[in-house]
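pinging the channel bc i need a second pair of eyes. not urgent but kinda urgent?? the chain im working w is below, pasted from the shared doc
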Amino acid sequence: MHTIIYVEIAVYLLAMLAIGIYFTKKDLSHNDFFLGGNKLPGWALAFSERATGESAYMFLGAIGFIYVSGLSGVWILSGMFLGVVFSWLFLSKRFMDEQKRYQVNSLTDYIAVKFPKYSGIIRWLASMAIVLFFVCYLAAQFSGMGKTIYSLSGFNITWGTIIIAAIIIAYSCMGGFMSVVWTDTVQSFLMLASFIIVPIVAYMEIQDQGLSISSSLAAMGNGADSWVGGLNGFALGAMLFTNLSWFFGWLGGQPQLSSRFMALSDEKERISGRNMALVWTLIVYVGAFLSSIFASTLYKQGTIDDPELILPHMVFDLLPPWVAGIILAGILAAIMSTASSQLLVITTSISEDIIHKTLKVKISSSGLVRLSRVVAVISGIVGIIISLKSGSVIYSLVSFAWAGIGNTFSVVILLIFFWKRVSGIGVIATIVVGFLSAIIWSLSPLEAIVSAKAATFFICLIVGVIFSLLFPDEKQG
């Protein structure tokens, strides 16, 4: 790999670390550490939410999937885009208002205070589910970092993963939510630049070589040149339903995303953030899809051993070193922004929701910040270990966590926001069943027919409604 690429990556990583160091000099309260003290501008929170939402999955997992499947891969991005639109249009204001009303610092804390009679068990169950699935999610991001570095430089995957993970852990510990949001903001611009530059350069290369996109897709076979993958009947319905099912995970159930809505200060900032987020998402998703399809045209299947590495392979092959370094930084940015946010969610769940709120350990605001930093370090180390030991691909790990957390808590949030009869028992049943069904369904033969990302949502919804009706909350006199 060219020296200039190493220099650009080093500068980028040092800049992220510098942001964390800057916030160590600030006197952060626990509210600042967990939710930014509602002091951050809406545009920064929007860029942070978008950078966090698009992770190693977008740059590696989704690109690799579409590269292999062809045009029908558009339905995954369509489902995700609809989810992003729905969350900003219909959920962001409610999250902002509810945070101000209840003065909570996390999604778990909000759910718990809505049902005070069952707050303890809700905090325990929700926190355990989040920690379990998010450690897997975090490991997927760490795997993505190791893969990316290795694919372009041949640098040892283990050491590449450890070094960059250590930087993420460091700046997340130093400034908490504040440093995570500002590093995300920088990272979101790199991601945006990546999906503008790559498809343009790839298309120019296709034109220079005189290649035909349609012919290349047809030559791939397996319906790659069809928007529905050459399927019909039940198979078509199952494919569309499974791919569009990513929509359900965006409906308020991702703690690392909903926290951005909760951190909004007022309606003006929310509208500013909403507009920024939707434009950013449209540009990035279109760029991602075009990059994947152009990669299918330029590189025959089997060109590289791991399809999830096709984007970095294309970047290194088509772009001059100084531009390739920027794009590589963009890929790392996507991974690092999500990883840091997930690490913060794990930290909040353990230190705030379990130790402080559930176990009722008396601790000062500054002491809680110190405890959170220790928890973040330990959680990060566990994530590194799982990443290095796991043989799972990024797509599988993210899909599993998306079903277990996104769908489960999306149902809980939707019921709380839009159905007055939801009860504490209904919420508890939803969390338990969502946790178990995501695991059981993912490991069963049913996963090959309908993804757990879709099934878990409807299972949780049915359970939440039935148990709320069977065990309604007592009316407060």
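so The two ends are 70 Å apart (CA to CA). and The domain at 3-394 is CATH 1.20.1730.10 (Sodium/glucose cotransporter). — does that match what u expected or am i reading it wrong
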